[in-house]
Amino acid sequence: MVKVLVVDDNEDNRLTLELLLEEFENLTIKEAKDGKEAIECFNEEFFDLVFMDILMPNIDGFDATQKIKQNHPKAMIVAISALDDEFSKDRMLLCGAEDYLTKPIEHHLFHQRIKNYLSIIRYRKEGIKQENAINPFQKSVFFKRVAFFINCEAGLAEFWDDALNEGRLTLFSDEVRFVYGVGLWLLKLKKPFKILIEQDEDAFYLTLLNASGIKRSILSNLIKKHLPNILYMFDDNSIYLKLTKNSKESISLDEETRELLGKTHHGSMNAKEYVESSVISLLPKIESLESIEDAIDMNLLELSQTHNLDTILLLADNFKEYHSVLELLTNFNHLAFAIESLIEFLCSIKDKNPSNDKLVELSNMLLDLLHDLTNWREQLFVKQEAVNIHYLDASLLNSCMQIRAVFDDKVIDEGDDLEFF
């Protein structure tokens, strides 16, 4: 049901609009005689669509539109006025109106405009998004995607201005400065690259494509130094950053806080729905994860006690088995990617000749990851109590992607640092 508010001091004009709106189904219509009454109506309930006259007593259409949009930015306000001059039109649009129609209303034009308005309102309510995002954190993002093709410093300056001076990423100046510094380094390496900005209701997602040539261990240390609370991921060619809109997302949240955040996230499928609709036929495969977890637990105990590097290869094999099951699941491609990156790292450790202390530290970090994976499996597939199937995503991603940074912690030479200013 779409709620419509008709605001006009002339009763005949209100009646005319209501008669035109009768052609459309699922509308409820309320009247207001001036801008003051319109504002009072919004204090009682939200209206999806408002037809706003301009010249009215008490509070005119300009001020009423501005005040309503300040408190209810998703309300669609359409100005309908006998004033057919550019000044009035521009002023109403600056106050927040999304369209402007002049009286007398032409029936065919009004009918087509209403169809368009209702479609836009429906999509706003449904929150329909595209499912082919580039970033690995969230595959469902808004359709608007902003890209910068950087082959010189002027391109980086344009990204800076768009992100900060034009307000797209005003609250994330540290993150923008970091991307700028990485960009300067890539340009010094004579590597053109691409910056992609995606977003959903909760976060912006910055991806640097064609960003090879910088050691990932150095980037990890720089992020820990300059952006200690950010969620990030790497692969050989790209750098991915998640910028949470409402608050900085910490990578060291305790379990109780992570679970609370997950359960207050709206719009995702719960565990019972997910199992019944997507993976009920895969439950025998999923049940095998428990025995894999037991094998990981035994090998971690062996590693912490004997420091045998061959045990790490056994752990890599365990996680490969785990990964093979994750690949069968829908909605968890990002987690499968993180586990795959972890496997690659484990296979490379033997060549690093780590100390016994490092091996104990590694086993402890992997044990934390194992506990999270066990909790994730039980809440989703055994107890089926998780309100949101992605409630542990941030924890699992961080556990996988930060192990390399912590285990391979290095002091960065001054020549390796980026140019931050």
Write a brief caption for the model.
The chain folds into three domains: 2-126, 3-Layer(aba) Sandwich (Rossmann fold), CATH 3.40.50.2300; 146-249, Heat Shock Protein 90 (2-Layer Sandwich), CATH 3.30.565; 265-407. It has 15 helices and ten strands. It has helices at residues 11-21, 35-44, 61-71, 86-95, 107-126, 153-165, 173-188, 216-226, 255-263, 271-279, 283-306, 309-326, 333-349, 356-382, 393-407, and strands spanning 2-7, 27-32, 49-52, 76-81, 99-102, 146-150, 193-199, 203-209, 231-234, 239-244.
**Can you summarize the main beta sheet?**
5 strands, parallel
Radius of gyration: 27 Å
Can you count the beta strands?
10
> Runs with pLDDT <50, length 5+?
247-267, 410-421
Can you give the mean pLDDT? 83
Distance between the termini: 52 Å
Helix content: 40-55%
Q: Could you explain how this protein is built, in words?
A:
The protein has 421 residues and is an alpha/beta fold. The chain has 3 domains: 2-126, Rossmann fold (3-Layer(aba) Sandwich), CATH 3.40.50; 146-249, 2-Layer Sandwich (Heat Shock Protein 90); 265-407. Helix content is 52%, strand content 13%. The chain is built from 15 helices and 10 strands. Strand 3, helix 3 and strand 4 form a beta-alpha-beta unit. Helix 11 runs antiparallel to helix 12. The longest helix is centred in the last third of the chain and has 27 residues, at 356-382. The two termini are 52 Å apart.
